[in-house]
Design goal:
By secondary structure, the chain is of the alpha/beta class. It has 22 helices and 16 strands. The protein has 3 domains: 194 residues, 3-Layer(aba) Sandwich (Rossmann fold), CATH 3.40.50.300; 173 residues, 3-Layer(aba) Sandwich (Rossmann fold); 126 residues, Dehydroquinate synthase-like - alpha domain (Dehydroquinate synthase-like, alpha domain, Up-down Bundle), CATH 1.20.1090.10. The termini are far apart.
Length: 570
């Protein structure tokens, strides 16, 4: 007779051929299995069987499948082979079950603790944790001698220990349902309602030569931060950098989301605004990291806008020659621009972002719920970077912006999520083709449409006097005016773009802040731009909507003429 171990291995290779004759499930669940996890006594089998019947799906119990394959009970497998061999067989059986038609699967209490099994469930199924309090579990397992892990001592102590070990891992499940002493039918209804209401966040995969990561976009992503980050970070230890404006609104939610899955955290707050992108603040952040005894696997999490992301990212890149880094952008501007692509840095008295590093994040969590706390001015500033993506190389997206831009700024969550997704997708394509901005023309430099003028305006008016997105919007208008003046695009294109920027409350033309500016001073600021080559000013110009390109052959006189036409002094 074959040994249980050999039978288990053989059974794991047998494909599940049970055919499905089920009800149509909503889009988020279509074609996916449903897996129930939780401690012994949580009711996974009884609830799973009822749920499967309601949804018209087959039901399987992982322990029963293992016993059937091995020809002996789970306690006997534990006794003959040990827990390690049982877990290996369990892993193979679950993978086999989930490779077939969609079903409802109840797992053993320890199955989800295996990283490979978790990855399989995450890829193939929707996972539901049936969370129960200790008294409920004790009542349900009392007198049951078929639980191997309960036979080694006091059940209450064993269950308490298992809860401490397993709950932080169970918290990675997609859906969490608290279960009490109500009848199974009532619990099943709660599980069904939670399942049908579940909406996964949008995911955008960013694939670069140096790294690949996901941008996760959706409502209340912060509350799920631990579940989302646990699979991608090497250690459940994280140092959070935020600012004094953002932290009161969003830090408690992030901390709770991380704590739910067992993360240990420390945090540091900096002053809001561009002044924190300084050598002094950078030194303070890195010193705090080292004081906290950060290790090479300790993550740095940036919670805030572009300033915090740039600062924290540079600190992560420099400390111990590189720490894992996570972007949690809380402004529209940072969600669609600075959080993706790996650029980090700080300012100096010589200009903006002149010290920094390319350091890609492990993940970007873009929570659209954070946008509800922003003043409309901040939303408009962020929208400048959204519309920029369409103007660079996606005319269809720009058309979408003209139709939906007002809704994005008005707080429409679906419109915001779509704008973030499409802008980040466009940026990811550009960055993937030129990660370190090394191409002589085109490439990543195209993302600086409007920035040559915009950075000059920020430097002249004072960093923080105007928002970065406001400066970029005006810079985009000036870039289109310059392109039209050089005969590269039509004046109608420039008028159209400026009209749209003005319509959503941005300013596509000068003057700004009712100040009369000097063309010579602005051009002097442009001379410090990082895009310049061999001392020549480099501009992002356009041949029309969605047709941007780089040029280092722009006569300074032409720039001066455009600025003077906009009301600047010579």
């Amino acid at each position: 007779m074959a040994s249980p171990a050999r039978v288990l291995a053989s059974a794991a290779m047998t494909r599940n051929t049970t055919l499905r004759d089920s009800l149509a499930l909503p889009g988020a669940l279509a074609g996916r299995s449903i897996v129930l996890v939780g401690l012994m006594g949580a009711g996974k089998t009884s609830i799973g069987r009822r749920l499967a019947a309601r949804l018209g799906l087959p039901f399987r119990d992982a322990d029963a499948e293992i016993e059937l394959a091995a020809g002996c009970t789970v306690p006997e497998i534990f006794e003959r082979l040990g827990e390690k061999e049982f877990r290996e067989g369990e892993r193979r059986v679950i993978a086999r079950l989930l490779s077939g038609e969609p079903l409802v699967l109840a797992t053993g209490g320890g199955a989800y603790m295996d990283a490979t099994t978790r990855a399989t469930i995450r890829r193939e199924a929707v996972c539901i944790w049936l969370r129960c309090r200790l008294p409920t579990l004790l009542r349900r397992v009392a007198g049951r001698g078929h639980r191997p892990l309960l036979n080694a001592g006091d059940p209450a102590e064993i269950l308490q220990r298992l809860m401490a070990q397993r709950h932080p891992v169970y918290a990675e499940a997609d859906v969490i349902v608290d279960c009490g002493d109500e009848p199974p039918e009532v619990t099943t209804t709660s599980v069904q309602d939670a399942l049908l209401a579940w909406q996964p966040p949008r995911r955008l995969a960013v694939a670069l030569s140096s790294a690949s990561y996901d941008v996760v976009i959706g409502d209340n992503v912060l509350a799920r931060a631990g579940a989302l980050l646990a699979p991608v970070l090497p250690q459940k230890r994280a140092f959070i950098v935020s600012d004094e404006s953002v932290a009161p609104r969003h830090l408690p939610t992030l901390l709770a989301g991380l704590a739910a899955t067992g993360f240990t955290t420390e945090h540091m707050l900096v002053a809001p605004g561009e002044k924190s992108k300084s050598l002094e603040t950078f030194a303070a952040v890195t010193d705090c990291l080292l004081e906290w005894r950060a290790e090479r696997r300790t993550a740095v999490i940036a919670l805030g806008g572009g300033v915090v992301g740039d600062l924290a990212g540079f600190a992560a890149a420099a400390t111990l020659r590189g720490l894992p880094f996570v972007q949690v952008p809380t402004t529209l501007l940072s969600q669609v621009d600075s959080s993706v692509g790996g650029k980090t840095g700080i300012n100096t008295r010589h200009g903006k972002n002149l010290l920094g590093a390319f350091h890609q994040p492990r993940m970007v969590l873009a929570d659209t719920a954070t946008l509800a706390t922003l003043p409309v001015r901040e939303l408009r500033a962020g929208y400048a970077e959204v519309v920029k993506a369409g103007l660079i190389g996606d005319a269809a997206f720009y058309n979408w912006c003209e139709t939906n831009g007002a809704a994005v700024i008005a707080g429409d969550r679906e419109a915001q999520a779509e704008a973030i997704m499409r802008a980040c997708a466009f940026k990811a394509l550009v960055v993937g083709d030129d990660e370190r901005e090394e191409k002589a023309s085109g490439g990543r430099a195209l993302l600086n449409l409007g920035h040559t003028f915009g950075h000059a305006l920020e430097a002249e008016l004072g960093f923080g006097t105007i928002l970065h997105g406001e400066a970029v919007a005006t810079g985009i208008g000036l870039a289109y005016r310059l392109s039209a003046a050089l005969g590269l695009c039509s004046s109608a294109d420039a008028d159209r773009v400026i009209a749209h920027l003005n319509a959503v409350g941005l300013q596509g033309e000068l003057p700004m802040l009712n100040r009369r500016l000097s063309a010579a001073r602005l051009i002097n600021h442009m001379g410090r731009d990082k895009k310049n080559r061999d001392g020549q000013l480099t501009f992002i110009l356009t041949r029309g909507i969605g047709q941007a390109f780089t040029s280092s052959e722009v006569p300074t006189a032409a720039v001066t003429d455009v600025l003077r036409a906009e009301g600047c002094e010579a």
